[in-house]
Structure formats: structure tokens, C-alpha cells
Amino acid sequence: MVDLSDRFAVSTWSLHRALGSTYPYKPGDRSHPARQPTYGEGTIELIDVPRQCADHGVFRLEICSFHLPSLLPDYLADFRKAAEKAGVKVQTLLVEDGDLSNPETGQRDAEWMAGWIDVAVALGAENMRVIAGKARPTDAALTLAEDHLRRLAEFAAEAGIRLVIENWFALLPGPAEVHRILDALDGKVGLNGDFGNWEGADKYDDLAKIMGRAELCHAKGHYSVTGLDAEDYTRCVVLSRAAGYGGPFTLIYDSTYHQDEWSGILEERDCIANVLRDVAP
């Protein structure tokens, strides 16, 4: 039997309709954001998610920053206790705003991101993912992002947190830009590869060129009116393994095909598990 108990995680984004509310923390705004019923009123609270994960046999969790209803120490401590009680690791805190490649606001955004390190520590998170940048990938924009990431990574490492970036937004449109930043930072920053952020004819070749360097993976399935595109999903998993990826797969369900989000999450898990069992030695 292949032990897959530590190979899957869930992002709170996959439960955004069940959670309903968001709290849009923004750089430059020190006030606590008001609750927004972005996806409806919701049926669960964030602190319920670790127990739901354990009940569904998933023992790793990623938390989107905009799902945190409070950053007060007591709430963060209570959430950490809930995760520990459920036996669920907080794998990553996903910091969902900021642009390190903007020469006008990059310093402000870097300082704002640095403030989330203490939140990651309080939650017991292993990693913190930040947005590398949203500017076009000019040499100047990439260099600026690299400088900010280097300092952020040092602060995070001092606190015991691994800083990671993602193949996401305009600054990282392809493998060349991803490799440039990772090479420039010489191991100080890790990569969270994402199946769903790149599209087009070169998607599979491009993912194959970066997934060997990934430490984490957002395994986002593509759904249409006919359901999960299992061929695409399987191909992404197979190419990642062939490239050398051996980390956890964070299940990203972003569709209304299944009204119950856990049904979509578990369908994705089963698809990946079948691939991993088929290729096991």
C-alpha cells in the first residue's frame, strides 16, 4: 500500500463559498477590514475548517489571509489549538495582496508583508506565500522584487518560516522569470508551483520546467459543465512527478460544478491519488 496521508492539503480558497465572508486586508491600511459577505453568508467559520479537514482525511491546511476574521493573539492562538486538536498542520499562510515589483509602493508592500510573518508564526504555519509582483517582467521590476524578497526571506527565516513565491501574476509569466528569481535568491525563497495560473499551448512544457524546483504545489483542477477535466489534471500531476516534485498537493477547488465544495475537493484528491498509486514503485 502507498501511504498518501501526508501528500494532500486543502486551501481555504477551496471552501470560499462555505466560508462566505472575506476580510480584505490591504497594504497601507492599518485598520481591521470590515467583514465582507463576498461569497454569501457562509455556513461555517474558519476555526471549523481544521476539524472538517480531519473528518475528510486531509491533514494539511493553507489559509488565505483574507479568510482570517481577526489577527488578535487570542484568536490566532485559538485557531492554532483547533488545528493541533484536529491533527492538522498549518502548511502555509497565503498573503493575498501586495506588489513587490512596483517602484512606488514596493517598500510599503514589503513592510506590510513582513507584518504577516508574526501571524504565520502564531498560527504555527510552516510556510508563507507572498506575491512576487504584478508588473511586467522587465529587468528593473524583477531586480526590485528580488531585493524585497531577499530581505523578507531573511526576516521569515529568523522566525522559522519558509518564504515561497508562486508562478502567478504578470511578473512571472513563464519559466525564465521563475528561474531568474529563484537563482538570484540562491535558495532563500522557495517555489509553490500552481497548475492553474498558466494557460495556453505551452502550459505543460512550462510547468515541467519549474516543478522540479517546487516545494509545494497548488493542484487546481479545471471544471467545465461536464465536470473535472481529469485528462488535464492527471497530465499536470504526471509531469510534476517526472520533473522530480515529491511534495504535498494542495487541492484547489474553484467551481460551482459541485455545490458541496468538499465533493469537488475529494474528487481532485481521488484523481491525484490514483495517479500516485499507479506510478508508485
UniProtKB/TrEMBL annotation:
Xylose isomerase-like TIM barrel domain ranges (all copies): 53-219
Q: Where are the transmembrane segments?
A: none
Q: What name does UniProt use for this protein?
A: TIM barrel protein
Per the UniProt record, the source organism is: Rhizobium lusitanum
